[in-house]
């Protein structure tokens, strides 16, 4: 099947405050939004740490049950069921050398669709590429999720 490298990021913030049109309501939402944004950033940090440690079990614990994995070329799509997420990550990590330099990850944008739902844009920079267990190297690249 060739060399597969996959990534997915899913983030949802918990808790909700209804938006109000009054100034007081707007202030409450701004305060809540900052709290929610910190929660989203913490969730993304935990996901990234699990990825950088090639920990399929922890990644699975942070993902929604239904994930669609797309390879870095945008070609391969593997729809996943609840029981398959950990296996997808585990299979991917079996190909990545433990000596591979982890990516640099940046949260580019957080957009709250509703107070309890966030759409998060994350950029990954693989400045050294990815070293595979067979000694081959995927060249340096960047991508956004």
Question: How would you describe what is shown here?
Answer:
This protein is of the alpha+beta class and 145 residues long. It has one domain (6-14, 23-144): Roll (Nuclear Transport Factor 2, Chain: A), CATH 3.10.450. The protein is 33% helix and 26% strand. The protein is built from three helices and eight strands. Strands 1-2-3 form a three-stranded antiparallel beta sheet, with no helix packed on it. Strands 4-5-8 form a three-stranded antiparallel beta sheet, covered by helices on one side. Strand 6 (130-131) and strand 7 (137-138) form a beta hairpin. Helix 1 runs antiparallel to helix 2 (56-62). The longest helix is centred in the first third of the chain and has 30 residues, at 23-52. The chain is globular. The protein starts with 5 loop residues before the first strand and ends with a strand. The model is unreliable at 1-26 (pLDDT under 50).
């Amino acid at each position: 099947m060739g060399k597969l490298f996959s990534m997915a990021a899913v983030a949802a913030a918990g808790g909700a405050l209804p938006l109000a049109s009054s100034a007081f309501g707007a202030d409450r939402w701004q305060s809540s939004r900052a709290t929610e944004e910190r929660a989203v950033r913490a969730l993304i940090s935990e996901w990234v740490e699990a990825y950088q440690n090639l920990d399929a079990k922890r990644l699975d614990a942070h993902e929604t049950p239904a994930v669609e994995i797309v390879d870095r070329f945008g070609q391969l799509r593997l729809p996943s069921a609840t029981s398959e997420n950990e296996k997808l990550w585990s299979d991917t990590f079996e190909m990545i050398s433990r000596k591979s330099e982890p990516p640099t990850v940046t949260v580019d944008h957080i957009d709250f669709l509703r107070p309890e739902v966030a759409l998060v844009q994350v950029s990954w920079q693989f400045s050294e590429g990815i070293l595979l267990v067979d000694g081959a190297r995927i060249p340096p690249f960047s991508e956004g999720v």
